Amino acid sequence: MDKLSLEARINAEVFNFSGKLGFYASDFKGNIIGVNSQEKFESASCIKVFVLTELYRQIHEGKVSRNDLLEYTEEHFVVGSGVLRDLSYGIKLDAKSIATLMIIVSDNVATNILIDLLGIDNINNTCQNLGFKDTVLHNRIDFNKYDKLGTTTPKDYGLFFEKLYKRELWSQEISQEMIDIFKRQHYNTILTRELPQYYLDSENTGDEELISIASKSGSMDACRNDGGIVFTPYGGYVICIFTKEFNDNLYYQDHESYRFGAKISRLVFDQYIGLKGRFR
């Protein structure tokens, strides 16, 4: 056994982590790395990618239009992440704008609007039909009524982003539209925290932006998760990092899940770049 393999270095990196790690990564060259990748985790807001997938399925089939106006009502209200909760009831936005808010600022109100529009059963059936066998949306978001939102595995989450990268979700155009939304994600702390920031920020450096991320994170008291596609000049790779059973339930940028997860993300990045587009 190679004690300095990428898998071994990942395990060494999280040796002092108080919780449990779930990890999945694919370089699209036949190299897949997994640590507890088929174990079920609370999805938190990561379940929102599957809500987006169902929206675009119904758009693809002509059941819903991107331009359909959706109204924010009192029934949709929920605390937590997002901006719609601070706006007045009765505001209307088109379906694509609602979906964009759900992803890029993880808007909980937007999520409830879309869940009510699309139907929980339809979302779960689509997950099963796409092969995400361990992914389930249990409830709309209501912290007073439900303590569970969704369940998934690092592998299911990784398979979603693999299909997206290969433009296999409904059509090439729709897949690209979804990627463009994920690239505008505001909360990708785990994946990007330790990456070379210079290559992520052409706006401030004036240089070419060599690295970009299409991702969706999720956090609840019981978990801190992140996953998506890292695009590089050598191609892209999928990486999903899920954590649970840690000691610290507080929310802050130096949480141990963010620190240890970010170290793993950098390990994978360096391996992929060092080998010019592959893990092995």
Tell me what the structure shows.
This protein has 280 residues and is α+β, with helices and mostly antiparallel strands. The chain has helices spanning 6-13, 48-60, 95-104, 108-118, 120-129, 154-165, 172-182, 189-192, 202-205, 256-274; strands at 20-26, 32-35, 41-42, 69-71, 92-94, 136-137, 150-152, 212-220, 223-232, 235-244. The strands form three sheets. A five-stranded antiparallel sheet has the order 2-1-10-9-8, sandwiched between helices. The two termini are 15 Å apart. The mean pLDDT is 94.
Question: What would you say about this model in short?
Answer:
InterPro entries: Beta-lactam/transpept-like, Beta-lactam_cat, Beta-lactam_class-A. With about 280 residues, the protein is an alpha+beta fold.
What's the layout of helices and strands?
Elements: H1 6-13, E1 20-26, E2 32-35, E3 41-42, H2 48-60, E4 69-71, E5 92-94, H3 95-104, H4 108-118, H5 120-129, E6 136-137, E7 150-152, H6 154-165, H7 172-182, H8 189-192, H9 202-205, E8 212-220, E9 223-232, E10 235-244, H10 256-274
What is the count of structural domains? 2
Largest sheet: spatial strand order: 2-1-10-9-8
**Approximately what portion of the residues adopt beta-strand conformation?**
15-25%
Cα distance, first to last residue?
15 Å
Q: Can you identify the CATH class of the largest domain?
A: Alpha Beta
Q: Which superfamily, in CATH terms, is the homologous superfamily of the largest domain?
A: DD-peptidase/beta-lactamase superfamily
CATH architecture of the largest domain: 3-Layer(aba) Sandwich
Shape: globular
Low-pLDDT segments: none
Secondary-structure element order, as H and E? HEEEHEEHHHEEHHHHEEEH
By CATH, the topology of the largest domain is Beta-lactamase
Q: Summarize model confidence as the mean pLDDT.
A: 94
Largest sheet: 5 strands, antiparallel
Which structural class is indicated by helix and strand composition?
alpha+beta
- The radius of gyration is 18 Å
**Helical stretch tally:** 10
